[in-house]
Amino acid sequence: MSRPTKRVGDITRGTTHPNRLRRVDRWMLHAVCPVVRAAKDPLVVDLGYGASPITTREMFDRFQKHVRPDIEVIGIEIDPVRVKQGQAIAQSGLSFAFGGFEVPLADYRSPIAIRAFNVLRQYEEAEVKDAWQQMTDRLAPNGFLVEGTCDEIGRRSTWVAIRAGQQQPETFSISLHLDDLELPSDVAPRLPKALIHRNVASEKIHSFLQDLDRAWLSHSALIPFGARQRWVAMAESISTSYPVLDNKVRWRLGELTVPWEVVSPKS
Ligand SMILES: C[S@@+](CC[C@H](N)C(=O)[O-])C[C@H]1O[C@@H](n2cnc3c(N)ncnc32)[C@H](O)[C@@H]1O
């Protein structure tokens, strides 16, 4: 049985959209896949799935197809009405439950991954660290919390990944639809809550976005070859001054991941 605990958090706006979370899911399939494959209990939680359970369903389908067929995904919502809506589409391996950041699970099971998207955006910055802590405390060893924000249709997205037992994120990622991108810093309104108010001179996230903009503009000669080539060239340039992770395979997708230290707020 689950331990009886208080539900931690508040019901917030339930805005969601089909396929909105494809960018973070694609990254999770790449970055979190090895630990999910190796997990004894392949349980993944989607925390705060919103007014429709569609993105939880999509996550289940993607993980079942690309990671392991015995994946189990549980959508957790703090709004009981939304839990009922989820339960209407439950199937083997996909279920829905009432809860908050305490991540209540039957038999006190520990998920190998938690995705919490567009949830902390509606909280205060001062609440972020406690929420991270509560969620990561519930992870299985080596598990990950992936917490972030995106626009309504998922074309601009950012997230952090925090490993079980850690107080701080390990990485920060940006993923953008490149075709209509003017500047990388256009992603600023979609930064995770921990960073969105820190995009000001003297903070590292601000310098980083400014440097991305400069590198992007410096490769405008590549416009005729397409935005992907331009993004890859930008990533290669920025790699000379920042410890950019991954390689061209990821960059071609409009992604860029750096260690958290590159953007972490001052205090
Ligand atoms: C904007 S929706 C996000 C929906 C979906 N994850 C997406 O990105 O499209 C935020 C949802 O998180 C839920 N929520 C807020 N705080 C929560 C908490 N502490 N635990 C569980 N759900 C929470 C809200 O009730 C709301 O339905």
Please name the defining characteristics of this protein.
267 residues; alpha/beta; Rossmann fold; 2 domains; 8-stranded mixed beta sheet; 9 helices; 31% helix; 18% strand; globular; binds S-adenosylmethionine
| Fraction of residues in H or I helices | 25-40%
* Domains (count): 2
Q: Specify Rg, calculated over alpha carbons.
A: 18 Å
- The helix tally amounts to 9
Characterise this structure.
- The protein is an alpha/beta fold and 267 residues long.
- The chain folds into 2 domains: 155 residues, Rossmann fold (3-Layer(aba) Sandwich), CATH 3.40.50.150; 59 residues, no CATH class.
- It has 9 helices and 8 strands.
- Strands 3-2-1-4-5-6-7-8 form an 8-stranded mixed sheet, with helices on both faces.
- Helix 7 packs across helix 8.
- The protein is globular, with a radius of gyration of 18 Å.
- The mean pLDDT is 96.
- The structure holds S-adenosylmethionine.
- The site of S-adenosylmethionine (SAM) has 26 residues, from strand 2.
- S-adenosylmethionine (SAM) binds next to strand 2.
